[in-house]
Each structure stands twice: as C-alpha cells, then as structure tokens.
C-alpha cells in the first residue's frame, strides 16, 4: 500500500490581503509570517519603522511595510489607503498592536491621566480606528474577517488599566460582530495567556515565572507559535459561522463555565 505523500503547506489565504498591526516583532510577527506562508499578501502595519521594514523586507514578495500609529485615525486611514493602492483589496485585519512591554507600572487610582488616555487610545481605541478604516474596502471585497488581540487579563480583576483595555476589547469584539455582519465581516478575538516574549520578560521578573507556570493547567509558558493556529482559524473560512467569540489561548489559566 502506498504511503501518503508528506502534507503540502496549506495556502488558505491565496490571493487575499491581510493587515497585522504591531507586527514588527513578537506575536504579531508570528502572525504576519504565517499568513504570508499561506499565500496572503501581507501588510506589516507598525509604528517602529526599523522593525516593521525589516520584517516586510525579510518576507520579500507580497509583503509591504506601512508605518501606522493605531492611536491616530488619520494614520489608520492612510494605512488602509496604502494597502488598497498596493494590493487593491483588504480581506483580513489582525488588531495586535498594543503598549505592553514598556507599559508603566501603576494602578487605576494613581496612573497619570495623560498616560492613561494615551494608553487607552492605543490599546482599546486603536482596534476601533483600524476597523473603521478598513471596513468599507473590506466590505467591497465581499467581506472579510477581523481578529482582535485580547488577553486573559480581561477576566482578572488585578490587571489594572491593561486589563481594563482588554475587557474593552472583548466588548468591542462582540459589538462590532453585530454591527459589521451586514458587510459580511466577522469579528472575533483571542485572549493569550502568559506568553514567552521580550515584552513579557520586561513585565514579569524571573522570580515570578515559576509560580505563574505552576498555576497553569499546561505547565509551560505559551509561545507566539501557540497563537498562530487559533488566529489563522478564526480568520479563515473554516470559521465561517463564528463571530463575536473570544477564544482563550492560555494553557488553562482561565476557566470559564
């Protein structure tokens, strides 16, 4: 009996265009590389020009860098226009950009108001800015799919203004799923648990990592690769009847019944 051939790389996104914000490194970079590998034209939408340009250039054909400040609606509008000029369509958006690694350590009762307003404008409103910028061209392309980056912090009452922003992302996801359904746009989110990235290393000292891992059902930190499959699934036609859903990818950190 002949043995089956080795599996061929799936190309679920051939001929489509995907934007990933904050994809100059970390989890966002993993997303944009995976989408490119599956045939998509990809947009590295990143405020850090050096990092974003390096990722796009390393991918080669079907990849562009667009400097994007998600906290500024004029910037996200310009990003969408640049994508349409380069690729002629927008099919997917991953709202990954956020302030985290360099986030100030403060509580809700003592965080500086100016900083808080800037933080929320990026970490919460940034997803709305990008969505509003792409929704019309996405609808004209026949619809599409948006995945927002939430966090298990959204369900933890000890996460301060970071958790507050991510709880807002969850609400935004559900609300936009209903508002954009008529455009044939699905909106979902994933909520990563503790993930081994440079950003996490800045926020979580080494001495806290062992207790953190011990609290998980699966006793290890996540990796960017752990989040790629869930995001690509939610973007793809395999999830055609899923919208308004928040998927925890967290090694069992949060249990919801």
Q: Identify the overall geometry.
A: globular
Mean pLDDT: 93
Distance between the termini: 46 Å
- The CATH homologous superfamily is termed NAD(P)-binding Rossmann-like Domain
Rounded to the nearest angstrom, the radius of gyration is 18 Å
- Assembly type: single chain
Total individual domains: 1
Spans where pLDDT lies below 50 across 5 or more residues:
3-7
**How are the strands of the largest sheet arranged?**
3-2-1-4-5-6-7
The biggest beta sheet reads: 7 strands, parallel
Q: What percentage of residues falls in helices of 4 or more residues?
A: 40-55%
CATH architecture: 3-Layer(aba) Sandwich
Number of helices: 9
Percent of sequence in beta strands: 5-15%
Helix/strand/pairing class, anyone? alpha/beta
Number of strands: 7
The SSE string, one letter per element, is EHEHEHEHHEHEHHHE
In CATH, what is the class?
Alpha Beta
CATH topology: Rossmann fold
């Amino acid at each position: 009996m002949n043995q089956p051939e080795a599996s061929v790389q799936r190309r679920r996104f051939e001929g489509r265009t995907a934007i990933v914000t904050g994809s100059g490194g970390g989890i966002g970079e993993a997303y944009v590389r995976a989408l490119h590998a599956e045939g998509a034209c990809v947009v590295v939408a990143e405020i850090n020009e050096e990092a974003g340009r390096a990722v796009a250039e390393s991918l080669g054909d079907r990849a562009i860098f667009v400097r994007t400040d998600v906290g500024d609606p004029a910037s996200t509008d310009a990003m969408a226009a640049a994508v349409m000029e380069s690729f002629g369509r927008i099919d997917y958006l991953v709202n990954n950009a956020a302030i985290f690694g360099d986030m100030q350590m403060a509580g809700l009762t003592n965080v500086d108001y100016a900083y808080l307003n800037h933080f929320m404008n990026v970490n919460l409103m940034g997803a709305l800015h990008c969505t509003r910028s792409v929704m019309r061209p996405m609808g004209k392309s026949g619809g599409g799919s948006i995945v927002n980056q939430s966090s298990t912090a959204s369900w933890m009452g000890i996460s301060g203004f970071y958790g507050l922003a991510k709880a807002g992302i969850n609400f935004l996801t559900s609300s936009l799923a209903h508002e954009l359904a008529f455009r044939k746009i699905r909106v979902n989110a994933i909520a990563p648990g503790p993930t081994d990235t440079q950003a996490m290393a800045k926020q979580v000292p080494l001495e806290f990592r062992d207790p953190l891992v011990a609290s998980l059902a699966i006793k290890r930190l996540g990796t960017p690769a752990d989040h790629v499959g869930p995001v690509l699934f939610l973007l793809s036609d395999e999830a055609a009847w899923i919208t308004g859903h928040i998927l925890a990818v967290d090694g069992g950190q949060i249990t919801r019944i």
